[in-house]
Design a protein that fits this description.
about 20% strand, about 40% helix, 33 strands, Anticodon_Ile_BEm, Isoleucyl-tRNA Synthetase, domain 2, tRNA binding, 4-stranded parallel β-sheet, Isoleucyl-tRNA Synthetase, Domain 1, 27 helices, alpha/beta, elongated
C-alpha cells in the first residue's frame, strides 16, 4: 500500500515561520506590574543601576518635596512620573541619575489636621504640651510618608527610597536651623513691624504660595472725612470722600491719600434721592473722573461743581477721623501717594498703615502711628474704641452703624470680587501689621538683584517661566519667614531685651545646630536657653524666639542637606515642579540659595501644567470628576498612566478622564502589538543571521535611517528636557511606519522565505535593532511593559533598565534614501486606494488577489522594478506603464492560482510537479529542507 501523501493533500502550515513568543497580546498590567515591582525589589535593581553607572557623569534632578499629608492625587502622579521618565532617560543616555526622593513634613496643613482631631474630641489644643503636640504631628507625617512611598513605587518610580530625605529628620532640622543662622550672622535677618497676609482662622502669617483667590462678597462704604484745616479756601467746610471694601479697617485709619496729578472736584450737593445718606447743601470732594459714578452710587441727583483742584494742592490739608468724638480724636493728614488710581472708588484712599503694604510704606514715610488694632484671632483688641472684641468678619454692620451715627457714612453697598483666602481653611485673609522676622530683598546683600541675575542664566522649560518668576522676584516685598505656629523648625534666635537686637554669635549657632543634629528641633523647646547661650550670656537678658520658620524656607533649604551634605553636585542639574512653584519652591529655593551662596541652586527649571477633567474643568470631589492614580492602576495599569503623561504636552494644562484613558489604552495596545510582532518574528534569531547594512535591501536601510532620526530626537530631548511630542512620534512610527507599512510588507519574507535568504535575514537583522531600540526607548515611559518585552527575549535575569540607549552608526542616516522612499510611499498610496475600492466592490478579496497596472511618469519609472512594486504594494503582480494623466493604478484579479503557502496568486503555481499547489519560491523553500519543523 502506498503511504505517500500527494501535494494536494499536504498541509504546509508547519513550513511557515509564524511568530512565536511568550509575550502575550493582553498586557494584564494591573496583575503583572506588581509582580515586576517585586522582582526589582528582590534583586535590588536600584543598587544595580548605581553600580552600573558609577563611572558615568552624575545627573541630579533634585526632588521638590511633596507634602506628607494624604493619598496621592493625579497632579502628584503626573509630577513624579515626569521626574522618573527624565531620570530614566538620562540614565539610559549614559549618565548616573542618582535620584533622592523626599518629603515636606512640617507646617500648617499637618498641624491643622491634628487640631481638627482635637476639635473633634472637644479638646483645647493650646492646653496640650507643645512637645506632645509636635510628637503627634511627627507621627502623622511619618504615617503618610510610608503610604505615599508605596504609592510612588506602584507608579514605577525608581529612586533611593532607602535613603529618602524628610524635612523633619534631625539632620534636616539642624541644616535648616543652620541656614536660618547664616542670614542671622551675615546681618540680613531682622525683626520688624510690617503688614502681612494673616489668617484669623489659622492665627498665622501666610506666604504668597499659601494664598488662593475666590469670589467674595464685601461690604463697600463711602465715608466722609470732614476738613478741619484746609490747604486752600475752596476746601473749607467740605468733606473728602473715600471708598473702601474693608469697613473693618476704619478703626486703623491714620491718613487719606490723593494722587498728585489728578483733578479733584469740590461739589455742592443740590438734590438727593429718597433714602440717600447725602445731605442737600453739603460740600464733598471726589476725583473729577469718578464724579458721575460717585453721584449715582450715593444717590445725589443734583449738584454744582464749586472748584476743581489738582491733587498736589490738597497736600497739608488736615481731616477729622469720621468717628471723631467717639475715641478717634487724632488728626488725619491728607497725603500724596503714587499708588492712588481713578479706576474705581472716589480717587481718595483711606490709609490704615497696619492693614496694607502701600498704606504701611506711606505711613512710615510720614511718621504715622501704626496701631495694632486686630489680634491674632481676627478680633479687635481691647483698647479699640467702639469695636473691642468684635471679629473683622462681622465688623461691617457695627462700623457702618457707628459711621452713620457720627453723620459720616455717605453710602453703603456690596461688591463681589476676587479676594485672597487661605488655601487650607478657605477663610478670607486680612492684611495685618505684626512683629515678624524678615529677610530683606534689597540693601547691602541685594538678594533681589542677585536672584534676577541668576534667573537670567538659568535654563527654563518652557522659557516663559523665566518671565513669570522674574516678575515675581522683581516686585516682591521683603521675605517674611516667621510663623506663629508649633510644628516646624523654630527661628533659632535670641534677642537682647535691652537693645531689641538679635544675638549674632557663631558659637551660639554652633551649639544650636549640634543639639538639633543629635536630638532634633524639639530640643529648642525642651532645653533651657543656657544650653545654647553658653557661659558668656545671661539667659535672663535674652528673649528666646518661639516663632517657627516658614515651611517655604524649609523646602527652599533642601539643596543644603540633600545635595551638599550628601556630597552630590551643587547646583542641581534640574528642578522640576508644577507651574505654581514659580511663586513657591522654585522661588524660595532661589532666594535662600542666593542669600547664602550668591547663586541659584539649579541649572535648569522645568514646569508642568495642572490636570483638569476631560472638559477642562478643575477637579473637585463635589463635581465627582477626580481621577485617583490608584484607581487607574487597578483598572488599566500604571503604564497607561505613564503613557498619558508622556503623550501629553506637559508644559500646558492636561486633561484626563475615562475616555482619555481608553484612548491611551488603545495607543498602548498598538505599541504592545508592535513589540509582540517583533518578538515573535525574531524567534530563533542568532547573531549568525546578521546582515551588514551595506548588503541590505533599500527598505531595511530606510528603517535604519528612521531609527537614526528617532534616536536624534530622543537624545536632543534628553539634553533639553523638552519631551513634548516625542512619544506620540514614537507611537506614530510604530503604528504607521512599522505596523502599517514595513511589517505589512515584510511578513511575506519573514513567514515564507528560506531562512538563509538575504531578504529574510536582513529583515530579521532590522527587527533585532528594532527590538533593542524600541525596548530601551520605551523603557523610561512603559517601564513595566518594556521590561517584560526585554526579558521575553533575553531571560528573567536581564533588565532593560540596566541597558543604555543603543549607539546607532552615523552612516545609517541617509537623507537621500529617505527622500526616495517618501516618494515611493506616496506612489504606493495610488495603489492602495483603488485596491480598497476593488475590495469593497467584491472584485477581489485580499490585496494578494490583485494584479495592478501602475502608470508612472518618466522620472519615476526607475524607482523600483515591477517585482519590487508588487512586494511594496502587497499584490501579486505589478505592470508599469507611462502616466497618461490618470494617477491611480488599475486593479484587476490576478491571473493564475493561489499558492497555498504564501497566498500569492501567480501563473507559476502548478508548474512544480512535486509541489503543484506552491509557487516556485515556496517550493524551493520547502525543498531546501530548512523550513520544516520537527514532528
Amino acid at each position: 500500500m502506498n503511504d505517500a501523501v500527494t501535494d494536494s493533500q499536504r498541509d504546509y502550515r508547519d513550513t511557515v515561520f509564524l511568530p512565536q513568543t511568550s509575550f502575550p497580546m493582553r498586557g494584564d498590567l494591573p496583575k503583572k506590574e506588581p509582580q515586576i515591582l517585586a522582582k526589582w525589589d528582590a534583586v535590588d535593581l536600584w543598587s544595580k543601576l548605581r553600580a552600573a553607572a558609577a563611572e558615568r557623569p552624575l545627573f541630579i534632578l533634585h526632588d521638590g518635596p511633596p507634602y506628607a499629608n494624604g493619598h496621592l492625587h493625579i497632579g502628584t502622579a503626573l509630577n513624579k512620573i515626569l521626574k522618573d521618565v527624565i531620570n530614566r532617560t538620562r540614565q539610559m543616555a549614559g549618565y548616573n541619575a542618582n535620584y533622592i526622593p523626599g518629603w515636606d513634613c512640617h507646617g500648617l496643613p499637618i498641624e491643622w489636621k491634628i487640631e481638627e482631631e482635637y476639635r473633634a474630641r472637644k479638646q483645647d489644643k493650646d492646653a496640650v504640651p507643645i512637645l506632645d503636640f509636635r510628637a503627634e504631628c511627627r507621627a502623622y507625617a511619618n504615617h503618610w510618608m510610608d503610604v505615599q512611598r508605596q504609592e510612588f513605587r506602584r507608579l514605577g518610580v525608581e529612586g533611593a527610597w532607602g535613603e529618602r530625605y524628610a524635612t523633619m529628620d534631625y539632620p534636616s532640622e539642624a541644616a535648616i536651623a543652620a541656614e536660618i543662622c547664616k542670614f542671622l550672622l551675615n546681618g540680613s535677618l531682622y525683626r520688624g513691624l510690617r503688614p502681612v497676609m494673616w489668617s484669623p482662622v489659622e492665627k498665622t502669617a501666610l506666604a504668597e504660595a499659601e494664598i488662593e483667590y475666590h469670589d467674595h462678597t464685601s461690604t463697600t462704604i463711602w465715608v466722609r472725612f470732614p476738613v478741619v484745616k484746609a490747604s486752600v479756601p475752596a476746601l473749607e467746610g467740605a468733606a473728602v470722600v473715600i471708598w473702601t471694601t474693608t469697613p473693618w479697617t476704619m478703626p486703623g485709619n491714620r491718613a487719606v491719600a490723593a494722587g498728585a496729578e489728578f483733578d479733584y472736584a469740590v461739589v455742592q450737593v443740590d438734590g438727593v434721592a429718597e433714602g440717600s445718606l447725602a445731605r442737600a447743601g453739603e460740600k464733598i470732594v471726589v476725583a473729577e473722573a469718578l464724579l458721575p459714578t460717585v453721584l449715582a452710587d450715593t444717590g445725589i441727583t443734583a449738584h454744582t461743581v464749586l472748584a476743581t483742584l489738582k491733587g498736589a494742592e490738597l497736600a497739608d490739608t488736615i481731616l477729622a477721623h469720621p468717628l471723631r468724638g467717639q475715641g478717634y480724636e487724632q488728626d488725619t493728614p491728607l497725603l500724596l501717594g503714587d499708588f492712588v488710581t481713578t479706576e474705581a472708588g472716589t480717587g481718595f484712599v483711606h490709609i490704615a498703615p497696619g492693614h496694607g503694604e502701600d498704606d504701611f510704606i506711606l505711613g512710615r514715610a510720614h511718621g504715622l502711628d501704626i496701631p495694632e488694632t486686630v489680634g491674632d484671632d481676627g478680633t479687635f483688641n481691647a483698647w479699640v474704641p467702639l469695636f473691642a472684641g468684635a471679629h473683622v468678619y462681622k465688623a461691617a454692620d457695627p462700623v457702618c452703624a457707628a459711621l452713620q451715627g457720627a453723620g459720616n457714612l455717605l453710602a453703603r453697598g456690596k461688591i463681589v470680587h476676587s479676594y485672597p483666602c487661605s488655601w487650607r481653611s478657605k477663610a478670607p485673609l486680612i492684611f495685618r501689621a505684626t512683629p515678624q522676622w524678615f529677610i530683606p530683598m534689597d540693601g547691602p546683600h541685594d538678594i533681589r538683584g542677585k536672584a534676577l541675575a541668576a534667573i537670567a542664566i538659568t535654563k527654563f522649560v518652557p522659557d516663559q517661566g523665566r518671565n513669570r518668576i522674574g516678575s515675581m522676584v522683581a516686585s516682591r516685598p521683603d521675605w517674611c519667614i516667621s510663623r506663629q505656629r508649633a510644628w516646624g523648625v523654630p527661628i533659632t534666635v535670641f534677642v537682647e531685651k535691652r537693645t531689641g537686637q538679635p544675638l549674632r554669635d557663631p558659637a551660639v549657632v554652633q551649639r544650636i545646630v549640634a543639639a538639633f543634629e543629635k536630638e532634633g528641633a524639639d530640643t529648642w523647646y525642651s532645653s533651657p536657653p543656657s544650653r545654647f547661650l553658653g557661659p558668656d550670656y545671661n539667659p535672663d537678658e535674652y528673649e528666646q524666639v518661639m516663632d517657627i520658620v516658614d515651611v517655604w524656607f524649609e523646602s527652599g533649604s533642601t539643596h543644603a542637606f540633600v545635595l551638599e551634605k550628601r556630597g552630590l553636585p551643587w547646583p542641581a542639574d534640574l528642578y522640576l515642579e508644577g507651574s505654581d512653584q514659580h511663586r513657591g519652591w522654585f522661588h524660595s529655593s532661589l532666594l535662600e540659595a542666593v542669600g547664602t551662596r550668591g547663586r541659584a541652586p539649579f541649572k535648569a527649571v522645568l514646569t508642568h501644567g495642572f490636570v483638569n477633567d476631560e472638559k477642562g474643568r478643575k477637579m473637585s470631589k463635589s463635581l465627582g470628576n477626580t481621577v485617583a492614580p490608584e484607581e487607574v492602576a487597578a483598572k488599566f495599569g500604571v503604564d497607561i498612566l505613564r503613557l498619558w503623561v508622556m503623550s501629553s504636552d506637559t508644559t500646558e494644562d492636561l486633561r484626563i478622564g475615562p475616555e482619555i484613558l481608553k484612548q491611551q489604552a488603545e495607543l498602548y495596545r498598538r505599541l504592545r502589538n508592535t513589540l509582540r510582532w517583533v518578538l515573535g518574528s525574531l524567534h530563533g534569531f542568532s547573531e549568525a543571521e546578521c546582515v551588514p547594512e551595506a548588503d541590505m535591501p533599500e527598505l531595511e536601510r530606510w528603517v535604519l535611517h528612521r531609527l537614526t532620526e528617532l534616536d536624534a530626537r530622543i537624545r536632543a530631548s534628553v539634553e533639553s528636557y523638552d519631551w513634548t511630542g516625542v512619544y506620540p512620534e514614537l507611537h506614530n512610527f510604530c503604528a504607521v511606519d512599522l505596523s502599517a507599512f514595513y511589517f505589512d510588507i515584510r511578513k511575506d519574507a519573514i513567514y515564507c522565505d528560506r531562512p538563509d535568504s538575504l531578504r529574510r535575514r536582513a529583515a530579521r537583522t532590522v527587527l533585532d535593532h528594532l527590538h533593542r531600540c524600541l525596548c530601551t526607548w520605551l523603557a523610561p515611559v512603559l517601564c513595566f511593559t518594556a521590561e517584560e518585552a526585554w526579558t521575553a527575549r533575553f531571560g528573567a535575569d536581564s533588565s532593560v533598565h540596566l541597558e543604555l540607549f543603543p549607539v546607532l552608526p552615523a552612516h545609517w542616516r541617509d537623507e537621500a534614501l529617505a527622500a526616495r522612499w517618501e516618494t515611493i510611499r506616496g506612489i504606493r498610496r495610488r495603489i492602495t486606494i483603488p485596491i480598497e475600492e476593488a475590495r469593497k466592490a467584491n472584485l477581489i478579496g485580499s490585496s494578494l488577489q490583485a494584479a495592478v497596472e501602475l502608470p508612472l511618469d518618466e522620472a519615476h519609472q526607475t524607482l523600483l522594478d515591477e517585482a519590487a512594486w508588487a512586494e511594496i504594494a502587497i499584490v501579486s503582480s505589478v505592470k508599469l506603464g507611462l502616466d497618461t494623466g490618470e494617477p491611480l493604478a488599475k486593479v484587476t484579479p490576478a491571473p493564475g492560482e493561489k499558492c497555498v503557502r504564501c497566498w500569492r496568486v501567480l501563473p507559476e503555481v502548478g508548474t512544480n510537479t512535486t509541489h503543484p499547489t506552491l509557487c516556485l519560491r515556496c517550493a524551493d523553500a520547502v525543498e531546501s529542507g530548512l523550513v520544516c519543523k520537527p514532528a
